[in-house]
Amino acid sequence: MGIPAIRLLRLIGLLVPRPERRDWVNEWAAELHSRWGLDGQRRRSTLSAHLHCLGAFEDALRLRIRRRHALMIAHDVRFAWRSFLRNPVFTLTILTTLALGIGANTAIFSLVDVVLLRPLPIEQPESLADVYTTCRRGFQYCSSSYPDFVDYKERSRSFSDMAAFSGTQVVLERGEGAELITAMLVTGSYFQLLGVPSMLGRTILPADDRLGQPETVAILSHRAWQERFGADPKIVGATVRINQAPFTIVGVAPPGFRGTRLGSDPDAWIPFTTYPLIDGTENRNEALTSRGMRWIYGVIGRRNAGVTIEQARADMAAVSDQLEEEDPRRAGRQITVEPTRTYTLPVATTGDDLVRFVLVLMAVVGASLLIACANAASLMLARASARRQEIGVRVALGADQRVLARQMLTESLLLSTIGALIGISVAAGALKLFAGYALPGGIPIGALDIALDTRVLAFTGVLSVVTGIAFGLVPAIQATNPSIVNALRDDPRRGAAPRMLRTREWLLTFQTALALVLLIGAGLFVRSLRSGLKTDVGFETRRLALAAIDLPMHRYTAPQIVQFLDDLRERVEHLPGVASVTHGLRPPLAQGGNGFLAIVDSYSPAPDEEIRIEADFVGTDYVRTLGIPLRGRDFVNGDRVGSRLVGIINETMARRYWPDSDALGSTLSMLWGPDNSAIEVIGIAGDVKDGLTENPEPFIYFPLAQHPARSEDAAAWFMAATPDDAINIVPQLRREIQALDSDIGISELTTLDNRFAEMLMPQRMGSMLLSLLGALTVVLAVVGIAGIVTYTVNQRKHEIGVRMALGASVGSVLRLLVTAALKPVVVGILLGVVAALTLTRLVSSFLLDVQATDTLTFIGIPILLASLAALAAFLPALRASAIHPTQALKTE
Q: Which pTM was predicted?
């Protein structure tokens, strides 16, 4: 084998234990033979031989080390698994704690990922920006008109291109029948600007979106292509009818592309300028020409290279000034430009509340995981304390303390891994539970594309490793550094045991502080929810059923819509259990609406004052059906086209514009067109809240039968009141609507009580999540306190015996043990109160009629937690005080 081989064999003899030498030599020789060969060895130089021998030996050594590490890890895993099977209660307790903590974090992270982190499936999203037109009331994120979009695109110097999009519901007709779908109207450059290719066929092009000469083409979403067309690969070129207009399918969007608006899930995309073809309203042509029709809820632009978001804002501010100079009626409307970080929020939605809410959820579940880690670490310390004698024996016999620490870390990592696997199932169940809730802004969580994908699973994997190290490191270090003599003597008063006890006390302090923060948060949300449920919205919510009816505009003219609603009323009001029925163009409790300028005959406005009144167009008996207090009369069948124009105002409007006289019988004029006829006030209705935290604004109701053209602008809301629970007549309501026209789409069928509950979604979700986690935390804290007292009793059993032998009373022993156990709890409560005073301010915007520093909550919750802690400490201390002094002294 040559000189180099002989020297290496001698080296092996010095480094490798005798039982393994033969295996080492065989592996090294096989590696040497595979890369060199005997014949080649004779022809090589001495230096080359040395290098090849060293290389072969290095590879063999690396292979041996990998095998050895694999065997060591496998041995540690088997050892940990057997130890878990011997302690099932300990194992199940930790696994349950970790599964809940990791599962909750996985579920909430998947939500945060969609809302804040997940990049859009588009090209270079960092150079995109969202463009909004501000409302006259100053809200920044409002809709734009089509002329606005054209001006923004043509006059801007910061954007290379712009695209607009807006959704609508349409009737899709195929050979099998008709169904209601969501169509997204997009300008011709939409797909090119986003850099989104088609999976089949092509996308919508600028040539398809010519004003006055649009191409009737459509792009299907991947989901709609699979669910509605059976993933037919020959779909390109097929013709369907959308609101009775023929459209040719020219492509299918790629999987996962749902547009750029958060919560949207369109079935198809069609050119923007086809809107007059699919809309049946009389003003359909004005939608593309009138600056006052602001129905575009999304404008997105790609910035030129090197243009910052600040430069784009300055550029669009100059465009806004130009437009205001040309059209003074635009005064008060500015242009808002925001970077497109993730999905675009719905218009009139403030991103601050949404971001704050999901971050609060993430912080809450993160705190629950920290509590789970603290509890697991405390249990691991207790277990390590019980194994002190075993570890001491192993150290005395020569065991490496690093190997022992590695074994304990392997146990914690194995527990966290199993907990993570169970936690994935917990996360899937939590997501199903959250699907029925909505985020601030009315975004249904179920409509978001939330999935336990590779990003979320990678987060779970990293979280499980960090968690395993977090709760296993300190116990591993402390348990593997004992005094061998004290461990072998099993003396609980010396060595590592006091350090373990102090560590467990600090963990209990940390756990108590976090528990108090969660409980105070839960208390604030519960009180806020109770306050919201008691909010007087102006009428009874429990007894009203609602149906949002999308009448096909291509088949129903404005008078026919009014007639349909009258026919439906006649059918429904004779159903058993129905007290009265009515309809309107907006549902009760809906925020925002139709604002109109007005002139009040008896009121002189200030020079800069604008009389703008929110309005709704409703059916007969509207006020009576909703149960709103009314002075005057309600609308009747005679209030139709040709009769004297009438209206019902709310009390806020009456007080503001008729402060010194009775508004009943007075007149006002609405500035909504060439006909500004006087409108008589026939009734004054009680105030109805649009939102839970908003003060009522001036509001007026008009009979829809006098203004039938208004029915073309929105879906009709049909309402039926019942003396009992309204949920009982919901199925009958659906049946009667479909009996009149089976092709009518019902976009929503619910009760007003359910809509009221949706308004309280943040409070409900916060109350549920914080209460569950807070209750779990309290249970863990109570278990930890009882464990510390039990541990202290075992440590101080001899001392207790001496005290009782010298005449100490049971009460004094109880006070001694309970006081010692409650010290870390008291410190934790103080720290928790300080932390809660700071953190609860972050959720103040979600609290209803409750202060973030509510005195009752900040006093009652600490007292409750302290009482539970005292009870948890008292029971094991009471058992300890019953020990006879003779038995206690025998433990020495």
A: 0.66
